[in-house]
Amino acid sequence: MGVRTIYRGRMTRRATRALTAEQRAQRLEPVLGKIRDAGGRVTQSRLAILECLLAGPPHATVEELEARVRAVAPDIHEATFYRTLATLEELGVVYHLHVDHGPSIWHVATDEHEHLVCRSCGAITEIGSDDFEPLRSAIAQRYGFVLDTHHFVSQGLCKRCAAGRRTPE
Protein backbone atom coordinates (compact mmCIF):
# COMPACT_ATOMS: atom_id res chain seq x y z
CA MET A 1 0.00 0.00 0.00
CA GLY A 2 1.23 3.46 -0.83
CA VAL A 3 0.98 6.42 1.49
CA ARG A 4 -2.20 8.43 1.17
CA THR A 5 -3.42 11.41 3.12
CA ILE A 6 -7.16 11.24 3.47
CA TYR A 7 -8.03 14.25 5.60
CA ARG A 8 -6.68 17.74 5.92
CA GLY A 9 -7.98 19.75 8.82
CA ARG A 10 -9.15 18.89 12.30
CA MET A 11 -11.04 15.67 11.65
CA THR A 12 -13.60 17.45 9.55
CA ARG A 13 -15.81 15.30 7.39
CA ARG A 14 -15.08 17.05 4.15
CA ALA A 15 -16.62 15.56 1.07
CA THR A 16 -14.35 13.08 -0.63
CA ARG A 17 -14.75 11.78 -4.13
CA ALA A 18 -17.36 9.04 -3.92
CA LEU A 19 -16.64 5.61 -5.30
CA THR A 20 -18.61 4.56 -8.34
CA ALA A 21 -21.01 1.64 -8.02
CA GLU A 22 -18.49 -0.51 -9.89
CA GLN A 23 -15.65 0.49 -7.54
CA ARG A 24 -17.81 -0.24 -4.48
CA ALA A 25 -18.74 -3.65 -5.90
CA GLN A 26 -15.05 -4.43 -6.52
CA ARG A 27 -14.17 -3.51 -2.94
CA LEU A 28 -17.23 -5.25 -1.49
CA GLU A 29 -16.73 -8.69 -3.04
CA PRO A 30 -13.48 -9.59 -1.20
CA VAL A 31 -15.07 -8.42 2.07
CA LEU A 32 -18.10 -10.65 1.50
CA GLY A 33 -15.71 -13.49 0.69
CA LYS A 34 -13.95 -12.93 4.01
CA ILE A 35 -17.30 -13.18 5.84
CA ARG A 36 -18.16 -16.42 4.02
CA ASP A 37 -14.65 -17.86 4.60
CA ALA A 38 -15.11 -17.26 8.33
CA GLY A 39 -18.38 -19.19 8.24
CA GLY A 40 -20.55 -16.08 8.41
CA ARG A 41 -23.66 -15.30 6.43
CA VAL A 42 -24.15 -12.23 4.26
CA THR A 43 -27.30 -10.77 5.80
CA GLN A 44 -29.23 -7.66 4.84
CA SER A 45 -27.91 -5.73 7.83
CA ARG A 46 -24.28 -6.75 7.19
CA LEU A 47 -24.59 -5.80 3.55
CA ALA A 48 -26.21 -2.43 4.36
CA ILE A 49 -23.46 -1.49 6.83
CA LEU A 50 -20.67 -2.51 4.47
CA GLU A 51 -22.21 -0.70 1.52
CA CYS A 52 -22.66 2.47 3.58
CA LEU A 53 -19.06 2.35 4.77
CA LEU A 54 -17.81 1.84 1.23
CA ALA A 55 -20.02 4.62 -0.13
CA GLY A 56 -17.93 7.05 1.90
CA PRO A 57 -16.55 9.09 3.40
CA PRO A 58 -13.97 6.38 4.14
CA HIS A 59 -14.12 6.76 7.92
CA ALA A 60 -17.32 7.35 9.87
CA THR A 61 -18.36 7.68 13.49
CA VAL A 62 -20.91 5.15 14.64
CA GLU A 63 -23.55 7.90 14.66
CA GLU A 64 -22.74 8.90 11.07
CA LEU A 65 -22.76 5.29 9.95
CA GLU A 66 -26.05 4.54 11.69
CA ALA A 67 -27.67 7.57 10.00
CA ARG A 68 -26.43 6.41 6.58
CA VAL A 69 -27.70 2.87 7.20
CA ARG A 70 -31.09 4.20 8.38
CA ALA A 71 -31.40 6.20 5.14
CA VAL A 72 -31.11 3.03 3.00
CA ALA A 73 -32.45 0.36 5.38
CA PRO A 74 -34.81 1.96 7.92
CA ASP A 75 -36.16 -1.43 9.01
CA ILE A 76 -32.84 -2.44 10.63
CA HIS A 77 -33.39 -2.11 14.38
CA GLU A 78 -30.85 -0.14 16.42
CA ALA A 79 -29.84 -3.21 18.46
CA THR A 80 -29.37 -5.19 15.24
CA PHE A 81 -27.20 -2.41 13.84
CA TYR A 82 -24.85 -2.46 16.86
CA ARG A 83 -24.75 -6.29 17.08
CA THR A 84 -24.03 -6.49 13.36
CA LEU A 85 -21.25 -3.93 13.59
CA ALA A 86 -19.67 -5.88 16.48
CA THR A 87 -19.97 -9.14 14.53
CA LEU A 88 -18.38 -7.59 11.44
CA GLU A 89 -15.48 -6.45 13.62
CA GLU A 90 -15.12 -9.94 15.12
CA LEU A 91 -15.02 -11.34 11.58
CA GLY A 92 -12.22 -8.89 10.77
CA VAL A 93 -14.02 -7.06 7.97
CA VAL A 94 -14.49 -3.70 9.73
CA TYR A 95 -12.69 -2.07 12.60
CA HIS A 96 -12.73 1.06 14.64
CA LEU A 97 -9.92 3.29 15.70
CA HIS A 98 -9.52 6.05 18.22
CA VAL A 99 -8.51 9.45 16.90
CA ASP A 100 -7.67 12.24 19.32
CA HIS A 101 -10.26 12.55 22.08
CA GLY A 102 -13.21 12.31 19.72
CA PRO A 103 -15.46 9.37 18.94
CA SER A 104 -14.13 6.20 17.38
CA ILE A 105 -14.24 6.04 13.62
CA TRP A 106 -15.09 2.92 11.63
CA HIS A 107 -14.06 1.64 8.24
CA VAL A 108 -13.86 -1.47 6.11
CA ALA A 109 -10.67 -3.46 6.55
CA THR A 110 -9.92 -3.88 2.85
CA ASP A 111 -6.17 -3.68 3.31
CA GLU A 112 -3.76 -3.71 6.21
CA HIS A 113 -2.86 -0.15 7.08
CA GLU A 114 -2.13 2.16 9.97
CA HIS A 115 -3.05 5.79 10.61
CA LEU A 116 -0.78 8.74 11.26
CA VAL A 117 -2.49 11.87 12.60
CA CYS A 118 -0.88 15.29 12.49
CA ARG A 119 -1.27 17.08 15.84
CA SER A 120 -1.01 20.44 14.09
CA CYS A 121 -3.31 20.30 11.04
CA GLY A 122 -5.26 17.10 11.77
CA ALA A 123 -4.32 15.36 8.52
CA ILE A 124 -4.80 11.59 8.65
CA THR A 125 -2.34 9.63 6.55
CA GLU A 126 -2.75 5.90 5.88
CA ILE A 127 0.42 3.84 5.57
CA GLY A 128 1.00 0.13 5.05
CA SER A 129 1.04 -2.02 8.19
CA ASP A 130 4.39 -3.44 7.19
CA ASP A 131 5.96 -0.08 8.13
CA PHE A 132 5.09 -0.89 11.76
CA GLU A 133 6.48 -4.42 11.65
CA PRO A 134 9.93 -3.52 13.08
CA LEU A 135 8.21 -1.86 16.06
CA ARG A 136 5.87 -4.83 16.61
CA SER A 137 8.81 -7.25 16.36
CA ALA A 138 10.98 -5.27 18.79
CA ILE A 139 8.19 -5.07 21.38
CA ALA A 140 7.40 -8.76 21.02
CA GLN A 141 11.07 -9.71 21.37
CA ARG A 142 11.80 -7.38 24.28
CA TYR A 143 8.57 -7.73 26.28
CA GLY A 144 6.78 -10.78 24.88
CA PHE A 145 3.85 -8.51 24.04
CA VAL A 146 1.99 -8.80 20.73
CA LEU A 147 1.13 -5.25 19.69
CA ASP A 148 -2.12 -4.57 17.82
CA THR A 149 -1.79 -1.15 16.21
CA HIS A 150 -5.10 -1.18 14.30
CA HIS A 151 -7.28 0.50 16.90
CA PHE A 152 -5.08 3.48 17.65
CA VAL A 153 -3.37 6.15 15.66
CA SER A 154 0.18 7.40 15.86
CA GLN A 155 0.35 11.12 16.39
CA GLY A 156 3.06 13.51 15.33
CA LEU A 157 3.59 16.13 12.65
CA CYS A 158 2.98 15.63 8.95
CA LYS A 159 5.71 16.54 6.49
CA ARG A 160 4.15 19.92 5.73
CA CYS A 161 3.74 20.94 9.38
CA ALA A 162 7.16 19.60 10.39
CA ALA A 163 8.78 21.64 7.60
CA GLY A 164 7.11 24.80 8.92
CA ARG A 165 8.36 24.38 12.49
CA ARG A 166 11.32 26.31 13.75
CA THR A 167 14.08 24.19 15.19
CA PRO A 168 14.87 24.84 18.89
CA GLU A 169 17.89 27.05 19.46
Question: Outline of this structure?
Answer:
By secondary structure, the protein is an alpha+beta fold. The protein contains six helices and seven strands. The protein has one domain (4-164): Arc Repressor Mutant, subunit A (Orthogonal Bundle).
Structure description:
The chain has one domain: Arc Repressor Mutant, subunit A. 41% of the residues lie in helices and 17% in strands. It contains 6 helices and 7 strands. The protein has helices at residues 21-37, 44-55, 62-72, 78-90, 133-143, 159-164; strands at 4-7, 60-61, 94-97, 105-108, 113-118, 124-128, 154-156. The strands form 2 sheets. The protein has a 4-stranded mixed sheet, with no helix packed on it. Strands 2-4-3 form a 3-stranded antiparallel sheet.
Properties at a glance:
Arc Repressor Mutant, subunit A; 17% strand; globular
Task: Classify the fold: give the CATH topology.
Answer: Arc Repressor Mutant, subunit A
Number of strands: 7
Poorly predicted runs are: 7-16
Number of domains: 1
What's the CATH superfamily, by name? Answer: Winged helix-like DNA-binding domain superfamily/Winged helix DNA-binding domain
Main structural class = alpha+beta
* Rg result: 18 Å
What fraction of residues sit in β-strands?
Answer: 15-25%
Biggest sheet descriptor: 4 strands, mixed
Counting DSSP H or I runs of 4 or more residues, the number of helices is 6
State the helical fraction: 40-55%
Distance between the termini: 38 Å
Report the CATH architecture.
Orthogonal Bundle
CATH class designation: Mainly Alpha
What is the ordering of alpha helices and beta strands?
EHHEHHEEEEHEH
What would you call the shape? globular
Widest sheet: strand order? 1-6-5-7
Mean of the pLDDT scores? 82
